[in-house]
Amino acid sequence: MSKLIANNISKNFVIEDYEIKVLKDINLDINKGETIAITGASGSGKSTLLQILALLDKQTSGSIHLNKINTDTLSSKDKASIRLNNFGFVYQHHHLLEDLTVYENIMLPLQLRGDISNSNSEVIKLVESIGLSNRVNHLPWKLSGGEKQRVAVARAMINKPDFIFLDEPTGNLDKKNAENIQELVINLCHKNDVAIVVATHDNDFVNILDRKYILDKRGLIEL
Q: Which of 122, 139, 186, 198 has the greatest number of C-beta atoms within 10 Å?
């Protein structure tokens, strides 16, 4: 079973010789298939923590282990391979490529991995699962905010990762679209046995996840 472990993670930023401590001694174990919520005030470090867990940022101290491998010992190329094959990431803003269709945006991670043998059927199946079969050839500007975020979730899922990190995925959506994204994420992750870690202010989202944490000046506290 895949497992991601954060050991004593701290993160400091230095701005004009002034050191800002964002994270201090954060510990978290994430098992495949779990759903985890991280809440907390704006500026508490939720986004920074997610980016460190996903190997998109480097901690000041501490370590991230994936399946007992200390990721600090890996090359940049190996870390990029983990991000592509083991992790998915969904941002508050969808980050879709505006010149690519829904189909092409979802296909992109498969192309980066060089795995396009069964890609067409996989993408079409995923598009159907997010309810956008009628939008498959549309560019992002033709989609609503909720539809764009559904495509972003599908893109994060296409490589069948073990872990998906979602940074305020419903933050820009109205209540109905937020509920749709919550349901979509939970259903896809349960179906594919994927762990999800969600940084969110959305209490409705928090309440449907297995484990709940708050990040504040005390650290990461389980609720």
A: 198
Two structure tokens written together for 65: 């282990």
**Of residues 117, 113, 92, the one with CA closest to residue 160:** 113
Instruction: Write out the residue range of the structural domain in which residue 77 sits.
Output: 3-222
Question: 3-class SS at 78?
Answer: helix
Q: b/e string for 47-58 if b means 16 or more Cβ within 10 A? A: bbbbbbbbbeee
Range scoring the smallest mean pLDDT among 34-38, 115-119, 204-208: 115-119
CATH number of the domain that residue 198 is part of: 3.40.50.300
DSSP state of 174: -
195-204, pLDDT tens digit by residue?
999 999 999 9
- Number of domain units in the chain: 1
Looking at the chain, the whole-number percentage of residues with pLDDT higher than 70 is 98
Residues 6+ apart with CB under 8 A from 190: 33
User: What is the Cα–Cα distance from 85 to 1, expressed in whole angstroms?
Assistant: 15
What average pLDDT score do residues 80-108 get? 91
- pTM of the prediction? 0.91
